[in-house]
């Protein structure tokens, strides 16, 4: 170990404090610290910090004259397109899937800390009748898409599933998929890779020690995707498989339609290199980022960066001018991703998040702060929109496609119960659309327009679940549901409607659950 050279390098960047406990450490811990510090490009991460904090003392509000809504010519809407256009786009997407040209890219670096659990979010069970986790729901949606593509094209295309994890979630995720036999997917088509970690800094620009022999680090945000793709040679793997486009999304959206044929078909038909699904903002001050143009380039502008006057602007039809709410649901061509990795990754600026970071004090004691004491640096996946040469936006219905799992059961919104309700109500609407009806315990047929409830203002809670293996987006349910009256709970699986007794038997004990399909 060349400790003096290391010390000199640290001193050049005002980070000599990282060796302040060196003489107290055992030889093993000295080596661990030496290796940890040697792995950090100190000059580079200090530059990141400097760039990220440059604008902290400047006005963060973006002036109205810099902002423009997404041009109408670039926007489509699933709720306003005709049934023939819907079918056309769906079939375009399925043909691309059949040809093996579509990948799903899952951003799954987050732990379940805010949910009150010590494991990755994808492993969370929101207490559906089937007791399926987020990971299982998503895996089975991919299986169904492959089946639909085969029925349309006769081609057995595979949707490779690339899952970006973090240091905290990778091994648990890998083990979980192995334990459940990849939920029917082939192991070689589930590619797990890891995003990078960056040192945490104090507000004064000093790198923080989490232990006397270890630097405090945090994942580099979902925008660390592009660096991670290069490091894991994922784009090369995509090229080898013949993948030409991908659908990227976050793990916590229980309603996500990954590799959605309509979205893929929409972007492909428009020859877009980059695209975003959005939902219409519910009200001007809703805490959601907005997809728009800033100085002529596409960006996601955070709600805190827009003035109230701008947020309240409306069009002639009464809709908000800046209404394209970002739901982290994006389309990229492989060519576009390769151009980002090769030419633009270093241009993406890190954003600063002030956090409570456990650390070692100058006196050598462990400290768990009660208030933010440092900064984590992260990039955002959508920061690449600015480099798009042909951007497309597809507006979807919130109640059909967006219900994020962010908080624990006691929170006011984005809870497990809210996600469960959102999915079951979606399936309820599917069954109604397929010609089915429901009756309550007293035998009264429920109305086609559900009553309002405090937990879900436009719907009501009815325990009816449709397995992704039975339907991806509500299609194919007529044979089982048309002109039938059901009493909840029900669970529709391929070719069968499970009774309450069958549901209870299938969901307990939880450890004995198996997937409803065979390997594909």
Question: What does this molecule look like?
Answer:
By secondary structure, this protein is an alpha/beta fold. Helix content is 29%, strand content 19%. The chain has 15 helices and 25 strands. The chain has helices at 3-12, 27-38, 42-53, 83-98, 134-153, 170-179, 225-231, 234-241, 261-269, 308-311, 334-344, 398-401, 416-433, 478-481, 500-507; strands spanning 67-68, 75-77, 102-107, 161-165, 190-194, 197-199, 201-202, 209-211, 214-215, 217-219, 245-250, 274-280, 290-294, 297-301, 324-333, 351-355, 359-360, 366-367, 374-378, 391-395, 437-438, 464-466, 485-486, 490-493, 496-498. An 8-stranded mixed β-sheet has the order 2-20-12-15-11-3-4-5, with helices on both faces. A 3-stranded antiparallel β-sheet has the order 1-13-14, with no helix packed on it. A 3-stranded antiparallel β-sheet has the order 7-19-16. Helix 4 (83-98) packs across helix 5 and helix 4 packs across helix 9.
